Amino acid sequence: MITSMSNSQMKHIQQLMKKAKVRRESGLFVVEGIKMFREAPGERIEKVYVSASFLESGENRKILEEKGFGAGSSGPEVVEDKVFRSLSDTVTPQGILCLVRQVSTPLSVMLESGEEGRVPLLMILEDLQDPGNLGTILRTGEGAGVSGVILNKNCVDLYNPKVIRSTMGSVYRMPVLMVEDIEDILPELRRQGVRSYAAHLKGERFYDQEDFRGKTAFFIGNEGNGLTDALTGEADRLIKIPMHGEVESLNAAMAAGVLMYEAARQRRGGKA
Question: Which Pfam families would you find in this protein's record (predicted)?
């Protein structure tokens, strides 16, 4: 049993939680809680840690066994309760966390026709900074049938614990690609016939006046500054969401959700 925060494994987990650089270098990220453990792909789980009291429940032991982490050499690392509480990033820890391997989905895979011939639909995020926004976009994207999410290097780290929590498990299933510069992938999008739309205050038409049934990419920019002029200029069309009152724009995740579900509506057979 691990009984001290000075243990090298505990120090490593703390670093993984706090520093994006450590997560990048190790290729790992930390997830907490029973739901996130249960939904994690078994082949990507590197290590499991549980509090001593977690193992007192037969139901909890069954949860571990279901994922192949029962007693023996494959079992979890047990951590003293007070140490686990110090380690946890949540207010009321459930007594289980694990290290999961990161994955990246190539653009070519995102652009393949999906299940039942589903046409590619991409969310391209530039300089997004709020962890909750990024997590919500991933979760909403899964629900709306998005093919993939692409982030530039200036976005908040995908594997930030706050992002992970707000995805509610979608981080395991939503294809994601991180790129140095979004402009680097634009030539390939054009070659593949993907039409790009930038959510912008200077939009030429309202979002629901466009046809998103073909290969589509939506550009979403920074919460405070929006899209850079450079990326805005690369979009095939600027679109806007109508506003009443004195509101100028929506929260980035909300705007992304509106666009994703309009595309989903059209693709279900609704009018463009």
Answer: MRM3-like_sub_bind, SpoU_methylase
Candidates 266, 220, 264; CA nearest to 239 is 220
Whether the Cβ atoms of residue 120 and residue 110 lie closer than 8 Å to each other: yes
- Residue 113 backbone dihedrals phi, psi, to 5 degrees: -65, 130
- Whole-number Å distance between alpha carbons of 125 and 247: 22
Q: Tell me the Ramachandran region of residue 41: left when phi exceeds 0, alpha when psi lies from -120 to 50, beta otherwise.
A: beta
pLDDT in tens, 146-184: 999 999 999 999 999 999 999 999 999 999 999 999 999
Does residue 116 surpass a pLDDT of 90? no
- HEC string of 102-141? CCCCCHHHHCCCCHHHCCCEEEEECCCCCHHHHHHHHHHH
CB 174 within 8 A of CB 103: no
Do 219 and 257 touch, CB atoms closer than 8 A? no
Q: Which of 198, 186, 264 is nearest to 226 (CA)?
A: 198
Burial of 244: CB neighbours in 10 Å, binned 0-12, 13-18, 19+: exposed
Q: How many CB atoms lie within 10 A of CB 147?
A: 23
